[in-house]
Each structure stands twice: as structure tokens, then as C-alpha cells.
Amino acid sequence: MARIKVHVFLKPGVLDVQGKAVEGALQGLGWSGVSDARVGKLIEFDFDGEGDPAAEAKTMCEQLLANTVIESYRIEIA
Amino acid sequence: MSAAVIVFPGSNCDRDCKVAIERSTGEPVQMVWHQETSLPEGLDLIVLPGGFSYGDYLRCGAMAAQSPVMQAVKQAADDGVAVLGICNGFQILCEAGMLPGALLRNAGLKYVCKPISLTVANAQTRFTAGYQGQREVIMTQGNGDGNFFAEPEELARLEGEGQVVFRYVDNPNGSAANIAGIQNARGNVLGMMPHPDRAFEAELGSADGATLFRSIYAAA
């Protein structure tokens, strides 16, 4: 069985308003060195099905877990 | 004339749409649960209503786009039936790949809920033909993720093909090219963030939404 972690972020160049808000808040708390904050998602699950976990996870990302018009994803398998 | 409103778990404008269309056109509207795998025979219009389908989990409209009924909706659209996605319905159409682009979080991070002025960017569609000389319409907006995004090439194509149907007069959410509504290349699928279903009689502040429903029926 594989443990799959999928990281999903808005693509560079797509306005990440949550990231901007978090960045502004951190700077407001005094961390003036904070820049380029991005807010994304981590989706993790066990996978014990048919097929190669990496290939299946990629298909899952393309079909559901990420909207590739605006998001990019990274898959980790343990 | 025959219309159906698709009901997803978390839809909250489904009954608004039914009442709005029935009062605008005088024709009955059916409700179809999202688990259905087929649609009633002979539909002229399918509406994907506003709301928060599946609690906006993962992304707005992402789960609803995978609902069983969406295969039938896609087939109907391929057969030329008019499909109208309002607000969450617009998000679902984009997530289902039936319209290009995506809806991002509003640029100001706020949920925007207010009457809003729109220009009719293309009055030669089956959805907007009834506006005739009326260049500006008023409908109500209510969303947190209405900021339309598409890659520059896609935007250029939308503009070039006349697929931009409505634009904001005062952009409330950072939407690309002030886009409030777009249609597909074939011209039978419209997605829009403002609610014609909340603007179908003067007592609601505007009856401009009724014209949109009547246009669809007149074209069918």
C-alpha cells in the first residue's frame, strides 16, 4: 500500500489572494522579510488499488484534485 | 417549451430559478436530482443553479462537475440544448470543461453581494437577443469566487469569437477583461456570475433577468 500526498498550488502568475493576505498579515506582525507567500492544499490518502500509484495519482490530479487551468500539483509517494 | 433545473446537494438557488423561469415565461420547470443518469425527454433548457454545491469542497463546483447527471448534461449540450450556469453553475461548467477558464477567489477577498450593472457585450446570442437595443442591464451578484481567469490566448479567442456575453460596468472582483459571463463556441452554453433569477420582476429591483429567460425560450 502506498501513502500518497498531493500538493496543489495556484500556478505562478495566477493571483493568489489568500497568499497575499497571509503575507500582509505576517509583515504586519513584524516579519518584514516575508515575501511571495502562497496558500495551497495538501491532500493525502492511502492507495491500495490497481495500477502504478504514481500514474494513478497523476490521473487523479488531472481529473479532480487540481484544476490545471489555474493550479499546478506535486505528488509525493511514501 | 421544457426546462429543467439540476439540484446538487448545497444548491440554494434551485427553487429561485424554477420560480424565476416559470414567472418569466409561464412555462413549468422540472427539478432533476444530481444522481440521475438521464434527463427528461425533450428539454430546451437546462439550468445549473447557484449555491454552494458540496460545500465548495476542494474547489467551487469541482465535486458537482463529477456528478452522474453531468454526463447527461454534456450530452444534451452536444445535442444543442441550451445550458445556463448561474454563479455556482458557471463554476461547475468551467470545472466540467464545458466552458473555458476558471473562477478564482475575488481579488478583494470579500464576498460580493449587491445589485450590479452589466453591459451586454454580445446581443446576438440566444440568451441575449431579447435585450435588443438595451445595452446595460442590472442583476444581483452574490459570490466569493467570481474572479474569471483564462490564459491570455484563451481570452483573446473568447473576445475574437464574440463569446464574452456580459461584462461588469464596475468590476467587483478582479475578473479578467471585466467578464461576467461567457458562452461556448457553439453558442448554446452560457455561464454567468450575476443572477438573472434574482432579477425577474420590478419588485426585486430589476426585471432584466426575465428578458434573458424569455430570449432562450424565444430562440428554442
From TrEMBL, chain A:
Gene3D superfamilies noted in UniProt: Phosphoribosylformylglycinamidine synthase subunit PurS
GO molecular function: ATP binding; phosphoribosylformylglycinamidine synthase activity
Source organism, top-level taxon: Bacteria
One Gene Ontology cellular component annotation held by this UniProt entry: cytoplasm
Pfam families recorded: PurS (PF02700)
Reactions listed under catalytic activity: N(2)-formyl-N(1)-(5-phospho-beta-D-ribosyl)glycinamide + L-glutamine + ATP + H2O = 2-formamido-N(1)-(5-O-phospho-beta-D-ribosyl)acetamidine + L-glutamate + ADP + phosphate + H(+)
Major localisation: cytoplasm
Keywords: ATP-binding, Cytoplasm, Ligase, Nucleotide-binding, Purine biosynthesis
Cytoplasm keyword on record: yes
Sequence similarity: Belongs to the PurS family.
UniProt function note: Part of the phosphoribosylformylglycinamidine synthase complex involved in the purines biosynthetic pathway. Catalyzes the ATP-dependent conversion of formylglycinamide ribonucleotide (FGAR) and glutamine to yield formylglycinamidine ribonucleotide (FGAM) and glutamate. The FGAM synthase complex is composed of three subunits. PurQ produces an ammonia molecule by converting glutamine to glutamate. PurL transfers the ammonia molecule to FGAR to form FGAM in an ATP-dependent manner.
Protein's UniProt name: Phosphoribosylformylglycinamidine synthase subunit PurS
Lineage: Bacteria, Pseudomonadati, Pseudomonadota, Alphaproteobacteria, Caulobacterales
UniProt gene name: purS
From TrEMBL, chain B:
GO biological process: 'de novo' IMP biosynthetic process
Record pathway: Purine metabolism; IMP biosynthesis via de novo pathway; 5-amino-1-(5-phospho-D-ribosyl)imidazole from N(2)-formyl-N(1)-(5-phospho-D-ribosyl)glycinamide: step 1/2
A Pfam family annotated for this UniProt entry: GATase_5
GO cellular component, one term: cytoplasm
GO molecular function: ATP binding; glutaminase activity; phosphoribosylformylglycinamidine synthase activity
Keyword Isomerase included in the entry's annotation: no
EC number(s) on file: 6.3.5.3, 3.5.1.2
Active site: 87, 195
Family annotation (PANTHER family): PHOSPHORIBOSYLFORMYLGLYCINAMIDINE SYNTHASE SUBUNIT PURQ
Functional note: Part of the phosphoribosylformylglycinamidine synthase complex involved in the purines biosynthetic pathway. Catalyzes the ATP-dependent conversion of formylglycinamide ribonucleotide (FGAR) and glutamine to yield formylglycinamidine ribonucleotide (FGAM) and glutamate. The FGAM synthase complex is composed of three subunits. PurQ produces an ammonia molecule by converting glutamine to glutamate. PurL transfers the ammonia molecule to FGAR to form FGAM in an ATP-dependent manner.
Name of the protein described by the UniProt record: Phosphoribosylformylglycinamidine synthase subunit PurQ
Organism: Brevundimonas variabilis
Gene responsible for this protein: purQ
